[in-house]
Fold each of these.
Amino acid sequence: MKLSKSEEELMNVLWEHEKAFMKDLLEAYPEPKPANTTIATMLKRMTDKGFVGYKLYGKSRQYFPLIEKSAYFSKHVNGLIKNFFNDSASQFASFFTKETNLTKKELEELKKIIDDQIKDQ
């Protein structure tokens, strides 16, 4: 199951807040703020998809994420690698390092991350 771009934006707010009421979510948006009904509709869809849960406090709902941010993005990166890079992480890494104009310092940082992962294996 996947979130739309606008749902991902709302999900990012929830991940940042961990728990939030509707008013908290609306306050997090820049002007012009979306309508309450727009946020409510997205929250309903995200709840139906299993990404968001809520706890009732009287008539108010406090929303919270049901999936961790890292798990969500890990699934997407793995899907990207599978669908666009023939399930090859090395093809993805090659594309990523060549097409994103990384600085030498950033490439060295990536190399260190990879070297550290190799040592831990």
Note: The two ends are 31 Å apart (CA to CA).
Amino acid sequence: MNSKLQIISGKYGGRKLALPVAARPTQNKARIALFNMLDEVLGANMRSQTVWDAFAGSGEFGIEFLSRDWANDVIFTDIDSDAIKTINKNLVGIARNPIIRQIDATVAADKFGAAADVIFIDPPYNKPELGEQLILKLSQIAKPGAIIIWEMENSDSKPEIQDSFIILKDKTYGRARFLIIKKV
């Protein structure tokens, strides 16, 4: 495995992860910064919840939650069959029973978006409309208090956030921009 992608912290810290062929993984430095922000935002009361990794790719976001014991349940969805195979490969040896589905995130939102406490949205950078569509849907169905982390390509544009959300953090690390919002 030639990937430099690895779990940052927790019981699986340092473990290398496989990447799907078409993956654009979030760089380790950016994920470290993101999880430092999440440590502050989530606090102890938001841990051990249900996490949905909506555009899962390699599954690194959900696996990081499992490694840190921040989630009881993790749901991984992706439309790419190679990504689903990679997620399964990356989960070998992790004693959990995650839900892994090959399904479009906007289609899966009715089921998983309404149940999740933490939702990670990382659509392909060349398809920002997918993130916008999912945010719009989550504005209607996510439960109050749900935390949504939206990773997008860094740009000067301001993403449209519905009034049903408040922005907790908006930070940029290199190419990645993280918008952390909370459903009110």
Note: The mean pLDDT is 91.
Amino acid sequence: MLNVVAIMGRLVADPELRTTPNGVNVASFRIACDRNFARQGEQRQADFIDIVAWRSQAEFVCKYFQKGSLIAIDGSIQTRQYQDKNGNNRTAFEIVANNINFAGSKNSNAGGGAGYQNSAPSYQNAAPARPAAVEAAPSYSAGSADDFAVIDDSDDLPF
């Protein structure tokens, strides 16, 4: 079976770190994801998705993300059954995060406050500077149909 999710959105509220009775860290939070399509004259809709992060991923998201942060998550969909206060059976639908990544710079986060770049290591200058004598990479433009050759496929394939 295949159960893979990749999602990107903004945190609706600051994530909170909790610990299970067994000492395992867990963070539950919600992100808002804009839908790809908006009807003409209407505002774009958003979906609000619940996310659960465990152990080091939970610590990571609580340390470096806050309300409004753009976040990228890959994980899997999980459902669970429970009863609400009135005894009604309910189903919770959530994404269990496998990997959590930054999806925008501090300046693109709407949350403000202390961003991750103040406390997280910066790797922006890790690549060596390019010497000035090196030519610029060639630019590629869109080709035309004349740029392609017709291949005779009447013979057997070579593999």
Note: The CA atoms of residues 73 and 106 lie 18 Å apart.
Amino acid sequence: MAVYTKVSAEEIDAFLTQFDVGTLVSAKGIAEGVENSNYLIETTQDRFILTLYEKRVDPDDLPFFIAMLDHLAKKNQPVPPMIADQTGTKIQKLCGRYACLIKFLPGISVTIPTPLQARATGSALGAMHDALRGFSIQRPNSMSHDTWRKLAADCGPSKLDDIAPGLNDLVATELDYLDAYWPNSLPQSVIHADLFPDNVLMLDDKVTGLIDFYFSCTDIRAYDVAVTHAAWCFSEDGQQFDSTVSAALLDGYGETFGLSAEDRAALPLLARGATLRFLLTRAYDWINTPADALVTRKDPTAFLNRLKFYQANPDVFAE
């Protein structure tokens, strides 16, 4: 979550008149994240998240996201459905952006996960994958393996080396390796593709919400596990790996869905791909984020450290 588009209280108040949600009490921009503009809204009836869709969300993809969230909600998954207005419409326009009002879910995002919290998250990811078995709508991954080479080029060799000396050559070598060995034959499904701790809401050791599905897409299912592993099992700077959190996360996933032998064998490669993907998108945002945007830029080297770990420790996923 973030704020790129600034919306006044008066504009939010007028926007809310389209819904049966009461009148505005307060609105606060949310700085975390890098994708869309988000506000925490409190009305006389309840609390909501107001989202304005920014540069990386294609308006043509919004029906996919609505259908996916509706499907998961009907399957009793802990997801925040979009709120329909008085005409039944879920997507509106606000300040020149497509926008929606989303149900607020209780809970907090943890910063240093415990093994119990990681197990609960792995279990929730597996339950979500199970619930999506019957979901037939597909969406290509806009940040798939096939896009990473162009993303690296868009960052620029010198700019990558400004982030970390030698980074451009490291990225080029890793891209060649992933192109040669990427496991395209593994089972695919709709995945979250961005299940970082700040996209999971928890109360104690219980998952109360899975949020921010705007990278959700059809891709290798085990890649979702690799993304979540890279996001949850390291210190924020990526320099420390927590093996107990790793084991708990994978055990939790096994409780509700599970990994085939082929999936588990591919996880080291998928994890390298996941870390390269987030290294590159963070690098691009680090280079290109507007100076006046209310958004917290995220350090690309945190995922450079994770990538180096997975390169050096291919047995980390062994049972």
Note: The chain has a mean pLDDT of 93.
